[in-house]
Amino acid sequence: MRAVTVLSVVLLLGACGSQNDSRSSLPAMEVFPYRPPLSISDATSVWSVEPGIDLSSIEAKLSRGAAESEFIGNYSRFVDTYAGFEKAQTSDIGSHVASAFMGKGLVGTLQWRLMSLVTTKDGFQSLSCLQVAGTATTASYPQYDSPRLGTIESTRTTFTREIGRDASPTVQSVPSAIFPGMKGLDPEAYWAGPPINIFSGWKIAVVNSDPGDMDRCRPWGYSLFPKPPKTKEMGDMLFTVRTTERPETLPSSPGW
Q1: Is 0.70 topped by the overall pTM?
Q2: Strand 123-131 vs strand 106-120: parallel, antiparallel, or unpaired?
């Protein structure tokens, strides 16, 4: 079992209107410096949003964290996902493109798009898209297997507040531990994860690869990487080609 480093962070608030510079402390917050599995440590995630969505909102952060955790769980193991996700997840329906990589070392940049955030009576629902064409898996050096077909994924996630529990607060500005991959070309290009359990107080249900959602994701995904020709037999299955060109690993954005 992997050891997890747990730190305690005490947030202090200055007392307003007091003649003495007294301070009161909030309860200690557990911090879990996220260490990605080695299979993804040389890859990063870059997010964009549809107009009108605030990427810094708690709903967007929860959506990002869940989508990235879903990718990590299917690429590696769910015990490797962000703190609290495995416990919060109640269902997982559909196949995920991450499982097609067979857990090989991933390099390059995952491109994500937050398409919608819809409020429900007891939480909210999000739709995100993923384009993996900007990544590759390591083969025998200096060769890489670069995905060409079946590279787009949709993930619809329903967040439900747990009865009797406070939902997670906004992610604080606590720096996460940096564990760069050995072969990263950019010192800032590392996999970043939230340093606290952002899923506390939520239950999460995930649906991958819904046909209607995929129809919304494909135009965005192919605007980044043009759709290549495909044969009928290949369908939407992930298909890779062998290359010596390593994809660019951009800094994680917006990061945690």
Answers
A1: yes
A2: antiparallel
